[in-house]
Amino acid sequence: MAAMSAVVFGLSWWLGLYLLARDPRKPVLVLAAIGLMSFAVVVALDAVRVTGGHYTELLSRIEVYIVVVPGIAWFAVLLELSRSGDTWRSRVGELAAIAVVAALALTGATLAGGVNGPLRLGHWIMFGVNSVATLGAMAVAVRRQSRPRRVRRVAVVATLFFALGNAIIVIPLGLVPSWLALASTGFDVLLLGLAVALWDAFDEGQALRADMRRSFVGSVVVAALFGGQALIGMAVTDEHTALTVLLFTSLAIALSINVLADPLAGVLDRLAFSRSPGLRADRATLRRTESALPLRSQSPLDGVDDDTFVRLTRRALGHYGDLSKLVASPLTALPVIDDRLAQRGVPDQPLERANELKALLADRIAALKPRDGGDFGTTEQWRHYNSLYFPYVVGVRAYAQNATASGLDPVARQAWQWFVTEVPQRSLHNWQNAAARVIAADLRGTPVPATS
């Protein structure tokens, strides 16, 4: 039983960290990570509780509250995926729905009192709230989102299994063996994580298999090295409670170090090279570029329709200042990139393709500038150019918290002031999407020669 718990814990903890490491700025990835890692905590607590230690009753009371977190988190994930806009009203409505579901689920946990003992009304409330909420959010998410059929299929199957699996998680019926309940529920939760990973990879236009395989293999190795020692100790001694705690803490630390190796390396660099900012920046760029290489598809533009190509162009424009993100962009496979590399006589390498894509995007942005001889304007014909050039090429961050115009040249300062005082953030977002459609249509047209 301990070995099965360790496997389920390790897989859930690893996948949660993997999603978090993909991009901690994306709410959908953070929420999915919370769901997976909270489920891993439930598995660990349950394994320690069944050893019959002194804190069995306390762990039972704690576990009944944590056990509802995966359902709440997955409900929030589905709401995030089903969002049709980015207005404050949609965000407030989403937060309100999550708060209601969380309040009902926690009320059920309070009435249940713990995961031990007979079946209570609270258990049924927990099961009903989680299952009904996730199924409803799933229906909305699938209807609103335009994703490949395989991605939607994984999301639907995962949600259905999860809704049914809630009965195993929160209702101690004892109708099936504990190992079977653990394995089936773990499968459900992992399938949910995989659905989110596929969803995000589709959004970014990235390959997923190679990068996930690399992370999984490394995690299996460290988990076997660290967790195996605790399992051996449990097999030859009677100190099961202490060794069970050691097993799960060792797995959590080892997997965290492996999956979060790049962020941890950045922390160590800041400590060791505190007086060498240039060295830290170069090492960070190399690490991000290395991590991006497995995300590149072999034939990323095969079968890509116009809408998807526009979305990929928008993503590339948003990553204009991040070379490591451009390395993984499908647009590096454009034929015009081949032509430009050949004209420059440089080797066909991922970094060269990313640099050439950045230069190509700069050319296309510059082509949007009105030909009236000025450097800045606020008329309608300037909107496409202003919305891309100043935020992405120049780095004007008008809407960032505590942002100022310090360090900007006079033209950029003028643009910053215009954005802050006259352009709502939503309007800028719409202009950027419209400009991306113009550039995408251009990129699919006649190649433009490389600039010197």
Topology:
Elements: H1 2-22, H2 27-49, H3 56-66, H4 69-81, H5 88-112, H6 121-144, H7 149-170, H8 178-204, H9 209-236, H10 240-259, H11 261-272, H12 277-292, H13 306-318, H14 323-327, H15 335-344, H16 350-367, H17 383-394, H18 410-422, H19 425-443
Helix pairs in contact: 1-2, 1-8, 1-9, 1-10, 2-3, 2-4, 2-8, 2-10, 4-5, 4-6, 5-6, 6-7, 7-8, 9-10, 11-12, 13-19, 15-16, 16-17, 17-19
Secondary-structure-derived class: mainly alpha
Please outline the major beta sheet.
none
Low-confidence parts, pLDDT < 50 over ≥5 residues?
446-452
Work out the strand percent. under 5%
Helix content: over 70%
The span between the termini is 65 Å
Radius of gyration: 25 Å
Tally of strands: 0
H/E element sequence: HHHHHHHHHHHHHHHHHHH
Total helix count? 19
Q: Mean pLDDT, rounded to whole units?
A: 82
- Mass-distribution shape: globular
